[in-house]
Amino acid sequence: MPTLEDQEPLLLSSPSCIILRSSNPIMIPAFRRRFPSTTTVFIWALLLLAFTASYIILVDPGSSVEKNVRLSAHVTRANGLSVLVTGAAGFIGSHVAIALKNRGDGVVGVDNFDNYYGRSLKETRRDLLELNGVYIVEGDINDSRLLSMLFDTVEFTHVMHLAAQVGVQYAVENPYAYVRSNVASLVTLLEQCKSAHPQPAVVWASSGSVYGVHNKVPYSETDRVDPPDTIYASTKRTGEEITHTYNRLHGLSITGLRFFTVYGPWGRPDMAYFSFVRNILQGEPITIYRAKNRVDPAREFIYIDDIVKGCVASLDTSGKSTGSGGLKNGSAPYRIFNLGNGSPVTVPALVAILEENLKMRVEKDVVDMCGDGDDSFAYVNISLAERELGYKPTTDLQTGLREFVKWYLWYYGKPLVEDSNV
């Protein structure tokens, strides 16, 4: 039975989302050894043709890809930015790209459309981006030739690097995916940025997970964040060290954003709140973990619109890179910000809000967490972002979850079942 995220969504009802075997048998053995068969020649010709076509797509100045990239990168407001958004078909990336484009900035997206949670949702986000004038190049940012093509075509003033391998549990199965996507691709991108003329300012997605589970609360940017507790957190912490080095050596202006739990319409199906809605609608129980001291874990939930404001403000205040040809000509800004909401919420409280919005109740299996309960709270200090970015979350959980539930029911075409017990 396919899961909901693997099914085709219902889209028609909403205006917000408007494809020789021909060798001679008489040929003598000596001649056959010296010359390939017609089939072999044909296969090699096809391979050469495919390679040539792919090369033309990447480097031909008249190619449709380059034309689309130039059009998408066109700036329509005074002093507007020209931004490369990686992971543009992702949850946060798609929202940021649209917000930038709608205010008149030039935006080009790149995404590899991996199948971590299936392609269909990402492809629908791409359709939405194209309706808003944002073009996405499908490709891997580990591909230095692809990045060179993009930077040769557009003089990007900024890079919003949101591409990453996400999730904590998946790292147990495939740790190499995290190293490749979160470390190697970051280095490839920074190498391109340091050599660009002019160098762009870089804003990128770190994670609140770098604080681990034994840190004091509320989490502050000045806290020690060693050692990380998961592979995912390790790759993000490594990314912070790498970006700091490129800032010091090459004059790249770099801002790292430590995201906490981001939720909202067009969100990631692997997130807990997403699966809670699915379970409630399907009448399946929800597992809720509780600390051994019988304290309900509390987490930071931040609505997508508030995260977008933080990302855009980070771009606007990033300052300029100072390098040239990879050589540093002066100091450049290096910043780290927490982007949360400063108001942790327990999981039972979140589930209750979902039940209220769906007008259904769900069975809850309460399970004691492993460990001593030190990770019961994820509470973040956002005062630095408030002061430096003007960052101020305005969407409460009730409002944000209501918007998410409305989107979920529309996107997956699920009817809202009335329940008089709610």
TrEMBL record:
It comes from Helianthus annuus (Common sunflower). It is an enzyme of class 5 (isomerase). GO terms for biological process: galacturonate biosynthetic process. Its EC number is 5.1.3.6. This is UDP-glucuronate 4-epimerase. It is a multi-pass membrane protein. Residues 83-317 form the NAD-dependent epimerase/dehydratase domain. Homodimer. The keyword Transcription does not apply. Its main location: Golgi. One of its GO terms (cellular component) is Golgi cisterna membrane.
